[in-house]
Design a protein that fits this description.
Layout: H1 5-17, H2 20-27, H3 31-45, E1 50-53, E2 56-59, H4 61-92, E3 94-100, H5 104-117, E4 122-128, H6 130-138, E5 144-147, E6 156-170, E7 191-195, H7 200-211, E8 217-222, H8 225-233, E9 238-242, H9 248-251, E10 256-257, E11 265-274, H10 281-298
Parallel strand pairs: 3-4, 3-5, 7-8, 7-9
Antiparallel strand pairs: 1-2, 5-11, 6-9, 6-10, 6-11
Helix pairs in contact: 1-2, 1-3, 1-4, 2-3, 4-10, 5-10
The protein binds 2-phosphoglycolic acid.
2-phosphoglycolic acid binds next to helix 7.
Length: 301
């Protein structure tokens, strides 16, 4: 069988109109050109597809079968061209993403793995705190945001993809290192180096201690997890950070996690965008990628 897509297209038009004249108008072809395509198709197949009775043409039994299959073929052609267009969109697309300061510890790893898969995509990554992320979402700036749970009263679509445990860290020579099941009350005797107000970590910490009626003695406030870790290492107090900010410090024993009752504080990481926002193909592909591969790539849970 040696038929062409063009012949199939002409055949479909004639089958639907049951008229060479109508079909030639729909296809912007001359009537002899349409008749010739059908004749060639019938010759290729070795069977008549139409029969003429008076002035009217009808599909033969073979024509009816052929029509059924040609519809499936053209549907599939439409589908594949749509999929390819989408893929071109992902390949050449640009992803604008904003992440919470703490999420930056794994966001670059996610983006690197994603760009290995779609190597022509480009990115813009903004790292900032929770308050600013919510403002950016209000202004519809980023395609996607990675942050802790956003407030329920905003028109946002938030999907959790991984847990984010917050732990208490101490310098390796701290007297509580190695103590099992440290009661929460004991923390009131310590000084804490904390994240800035407006950060998700700070909010989670406040809610947690308030719900346990514990008043923390907070010392320095810092806008970066790195600064907190260094301050704790230098003996300026205890810190509360996400485990996602720790790996090297634990491996090299520069910091240790304390075994405190009711810890870790369990938060979740969310992929967030505005409700009703139409995600671009590249944003949709990244969203899917985070759900499929995120946990495996980031680890630590
Ligand atoms: P943060 O966000 O970096 O602003 O603390 C993380 C979170 O929401 O837990």
């Amino acid at each position: 069988m040696n038929i062409t897509f063009r012949q199939l297209e002409v055949f479909e038009a004639v089958s639907k109109a049951l008229s060479y004249t109508q079909a030639s108008k729909a296809l912007h072809l001359s009537q002899p050109a349409v008749s010739m395509q059908i004749k060639q198709l019938e010759d290729n197949l070795g069977i008549d597809l139409f029969e003429q009775m008076g002035k009217q043409i009808y599909l033969t039994e073979a024509g009816i079968e052929m029509f059924r299959y040609s519809q499936v073929i053209s549907q599939q052609l439409d589908e594949v061209s749509e999929v390819l267009e989408q893929l071109k969109g992902v390949q050449r697309g640009k992803l604008t993403i904003s992440v919470a300061s703490t999420a930056n510890y794994f966001a670059t790893r996610l983006l690197a793995a994603f760009s290995r898969k779609y190597d022509e995509t480009t990115f813009s990554l903004d790292v900032t705190n929770r308050e600013t992320l919510l403002l950016q979402l209000d202004n519809n700036e980023p395609d996607l945001v990675i942050m802790g749970k956003p407030p329920a009263d905003r028109e946002l679509l938030a999907e959790a993809f991984m847990t984010n445990p917050l732990v208490v860290v101490a310098a390796p020579d701290h007297p509580l290192i190695g103590v099992k099941d440290i009661p929460l009350e004991l923390l009131q005797e310590e000084t804490f180096v904390v994240r800035e107000k407006g950060s998700g970590t700070w909010g989670a910490m406040q809610r947690f201690f308030a719900s346990h009626s514990i008043v923390l003695n907070t010392g320095m406030e810092m806008t970066s997890n790195e600064a907190i870790k260094q301050a704790v290492e230098a003996g300026l107090g205890l810190g509360i950070v996400s485990v996602h900010t720790l790996s090297l410090e634990l491996e090299t024993h520069r910091l240790a996690i304390l075994d405190v009752q009711s810890f870790p504080i369990l938060r979740d990481w969310y992929l967030v965008h505005r409700q009703g926002k139409r995600l671009s193909p590249v944003a949709e592909a990244f969203r899917q990628f985070v759900f499929d591969e995120g946990q495996k790539l980031i680890g630590f849970n």
